Amino acid sequence: MRVLVVEDERVLADAIATGLRREALAVDVAYDGAGALERAQVNEYDVIVLDRDLPRVHGDDVCKQLVAQRYPARIIMLTAAGELDDRVEGLSIGADDYLAKPFAFAELIARVRALGRRAAAPLPPVLERAGIALDPARREVTRDAHPVELTRKEFAVLEVLLSADGAVVSSEQLLEKAWDEHIDPFTNVVRVTMMTLRKKLGDPPVIETVPGVGYRL
């Protein structure tokens, strides 16, 4: 899942991004509303964590523009304005969820993952295929009921493959969903991660390489 964090308090923005990355999510950061709109035109996000009181372009206007453009990401407003009227106003302009500061990070993670499931075709809470089971909320993977220890990136790649439900996923799509905007598109990081993931999942192999197209589980 790919997330955009939009927050003008840089320490808080970077802390949120770091926490989300620890949950095996790909995260980009924008420190003002204009930067958020620029990144949204370049990258396709599943969820946008959006502060309301932003410089350059107000968070409400960012939300309105993305909704008007039918941008596919789900939006959670993260703001100090947490009164009932504030929440109603935020939801009425197109936000999908609203979380007031201060907040428990575990709740933010749960809400981001819930919105991510709604951003595309509905997915079950535990993804299963070919004896592989992945629980995003618990960060657990098993094969035939045996635990499999994965790095954050291996976990993210496996989640993308399982979410595709048997469809082929290209290297470009994996870079888009499992890494952030700082990744070099010409790197061999996908191939290397796929090699280590296959090794950890064990035999018989469950990830197929489709020459010239991508990978399929």
UniProtKB/TrEMBL annotation:
**Which positions fall inside the OmpR/PhoB-type domain?**
124-217
Supply the SMART domains for this chain: REC, Trans_reg_C
- DNA-binding region(s) from the entry: 124-217
Every Response regulatory domain range: 2-116
Q: Which residues carry this modification: 4-aspartylphosphate?
A: 51
> Which PROSITE patterns would you find in this protein's record?
OMPR_PHOB, RESPONSE_REGULATORY
Which InterPro entries does the UniProt record give?
Answer: CheY-like_superfamily, OmpR/PhoB-type_DNA-bd, Sig_transdc_resp-reg_receiver, WalR-like, WH-like_DNA-bd_sf
Key words, A-Z? DNA-binding, Phosphoprotein
Q: Which Pfam families match?
A: Response_reg, Trans_reg_C
State the name under which the record lists this protein: Response regulator transcription factor
Q: What is the lineage of its organism?
A: Bacteria, Bacillati, Actinomycetota, Actinomycetes, Streptosporangiales
